[in-house]
Amino acid sequence: MGWYATYFIVYFIFMLAIAYYYFKKIKTYEDYLIGGWNTGFWQITGTIISTFCGAAVFIGWVGLGFTVGLSGYWKFAFVAILFSLILILGFARPLRRQKLITLADLFTKRFGGKAGVVPSILSAFIYSVPTTALQMVGMSTVFNITFDMNVSLGIFISFVVILIFTVIGGLPATMLTDAIQSIIIIIGVVILAVVTVVHVGGLSTLFENSSSKLLSISGPDGYGEVLLYALSVGPFYLVWQSIWQRIFAAKSENVAVSANALGFVISGFISILPFIIGLAARQFVPLDMHPDLVFSYVTDLLLSSPLGGLVFLGLLAALMTGATSFILQGSSNLTIDFYQTFINKNASSRKMLVFSRISVAIITILACLFAYTVSDIATTYQWALRLTSTILVIPFIAVMFWKGVTKIGVMVSMIGTAILVLLYPLFNLPIDHAIFGFIISFILLVGTSLLTKHDKLETIQAAYFEKLDNPNLEDYYE
């Protein structure tokens, strides 16, 4: 316990010192939310690794490997990496040229008015709040295993530390600490993977003693289940605000593409390890154990305090950075798309910065409250991804490539899809609810756009090919 306490105290002091340093340097809300468009290569690479490898990787994916074996990698991790690379390699340059801050900005510039409201609500509340809550739950699990701390108290302590760091440090502090923490994360998960595999007799013995279904791509549920799972989760990464923030924060287009891409390639290799750990854990962990507890159980069982402390520190680093990134994602939506749009359209840069910090507190408090309701990390994360992607992916692609899409078409698609996806359990349909959502989104968007005319506030351009130039944005706040 002494090693754990030493590691954690030194780590949190370091994090808060970095945050305070940037608190003195940050002067504008753009500095606070996107690093002033001037972040370097290795900071971008490190922050991608740290943000991607959060509670889902260390806890959720070890649990997924424990339940379905290596097929979990193809169902979730691989497809997440693939779609992230599609966004970065295919869309980073045209998106950066739009000079945006949030995903909702893209809809606002294309359609004028308040077309960005729905994407903002999704990003800030449907995604940022629950995913931040997952990080708090993950941190409380670490405190429970290492200090035998009550989970409720652990969530509250996590909330306090995350809130202080994020409020004062913003994205610049997050990305610098991410770059450093990515090293800790990699070392931690590699150590645990090696020790776990050695404990069961090596890779060859592990594979010999594991069911062929747990080693195959199809897994115990078959190829159909893997494909449906992948298609229902993967497209979300095309509209993941955290990647968009990193694209906009980079100091150049080349850095935006190369640094983000490298971060995800490295993350792809790291992500294999949690599933191997989960698969190996089946050899010595009670099979009725809750999947979310497997990571902490294995670490506490197999590693002495110095090494175990380093692994748990890697987990804390991943959880902290994931939480701050998700909070800042929601904060950017509240600041740009709500405060500036509905409350104070002529707000000064200083007032925008103040509200940015207030919105960080709002998102963090809501996440803390939500954290007390979470019972399954992987399921909760999957739910947030599916709902967001079914509502936003088709409209995003339309805005990028189709001049014919109308404002009414996009709004009907987003609102109609949200309602029908939430009501899906009542329909008793023989189709995956995410696939159902994508089909509904496409039909509503294309059908409504073909039946309606462009709004007078629209600029009829395809964002992939042109820099959106909407002369009607002076009407944006009316």
UniProtKB/TrEMBL annotation:
TM spans (from-to): 6-23, 44-66, 72-91, 111-129, 149-171, 183-202, 222-240, 261-281, 301-328, 354-374, 380-401, 408-427, 433-451
UniProt cross-references to PROSITE patterns, sorted A to Z: NA_SOLUT_SYMP_3
Flavoprotein is among the record's keywords: no
Subcellular location: Membrane
Broad class of where this protein is predominantly found: membrane
Protein topology in the membrane: Multi-pass membrane protein
Pfam family, one: SSF
Record keywords: Membrane, Transmembrane, Transmembrane helix, Transport
Source domain of life: Bacteria
Family the entry assigns: Belongs to the sodium:solute symporter (SSF) (TC 2.A.21) family.
Name of the featured protein: Sodium:solute symporter family protein
